[in-house]
């Protein structure tokens, strides 16, 4: 099953909205620290509403901790970035992919992007717009992966 990974998220409501999307789709959510908030943050909880019991959540204090989990479970790292090399709709997703998204302010670091097996971007027509909201980007990428893998039928 495809998994969503947030590396260094900073804004609680975005993470809460992503958790809600993951709950609705049964998608595991991995949070990689350091984060800009505490897991108990009220804005995080509020954005996720009463769906938290349905979130398959795993927290990794550091990138190294997350890498250990990845090594145990296998699969590809697909980094989503405005600098991604493949258009997300043309990219071929696999069942065991990890969809990595960076913080709202800086995206994925060059170190994390270099460790990815592939990178994907969500093209935008307006060059003055740097990026989409993180929760929107996750939903777009996740639902395309689910569509390709036959989970929307």
Which structural class fits the helix and strand makeup? alpha/beta
The biggest beta sheet reads: 7 strands, parallel
- Which CATH-level-2 architecture? 3-Layer(aba) Sandwich
| Order of neighbouring strands in the sheet with most strands | 3-2-1-6-4-7-5
User: For this structure, what is the CATH class?
Assistant: Alpha Beta
CATH superfamily: SPOUT methyltransferase, trefoil knot domain
Strand and helix order? EHEHEHEEEHEH
Beta-strand segment tally? 7
Q: Would you identify the regions where 5 or more consecutive residues have pLDDT less than 50? A: none
The separation of the N and C termini measures: 16 Å
Radius of gyration: 14 Å
Calculate the mean pLDDT score and round it: 93
In CATH, the topology is named: Alpha/beta knot
Shape annotation: globular
Description:
This protein is α/β, with parallel strands linked by helices and 153 residues long. The chain has one domain (3-100, 111-148): Alpha/beta knot (3-Layer(aba) Sandwich). It is 35% helix and 18% strand. The chain contains five helices and seven strands. The protein has helices spanning 12-25, 42-48, 63-73, 110-115, 134-148; strands spanning 3-7, 29-32, 57-60, 77-80, 86-87, 98-101, 118-121. The protein has a seven-stranded parallel beta sheet. Helix 1 links the parallel strand 1 and strand 2 (29-32). Helix 1 (12-25) packs parallel to helix 2 and helix 1 (12-25) packs parallel to helix 5.
């Amino acid at each position: 099953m495809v998994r969503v990974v947030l590396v260094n998220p900073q804004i609680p409501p975005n993470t809460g909205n992503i958790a809600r999307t993951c709950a609705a789709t049964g998608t595991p959510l991995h949070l990689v620290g350091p984060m800009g908030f505490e897991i108990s943050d009220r804005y995080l909880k509020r954005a996720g509403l009463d769906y938290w019991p349905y979130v398959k959540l795993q927290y990794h204090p550091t990138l190294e901790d997350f890498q250990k989990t990845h090594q145990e479970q296998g699969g590809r790292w697909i980094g989503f970035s405005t600098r991604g090399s493949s258009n997300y709709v043309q990219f071929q997703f696999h069942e065991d992919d990890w969809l990595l998204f960076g913080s709202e302010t800086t995206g994925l670091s060059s170190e994390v992007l270099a460790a990815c097996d592939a990178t994907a971007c969500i093209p935008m027509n307006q060059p003055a717009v740097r990026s989409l909201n993180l929760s929107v980007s996750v939903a777009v990428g996740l639902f395309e992966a689910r569509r390709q893998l036959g989970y929307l039928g």
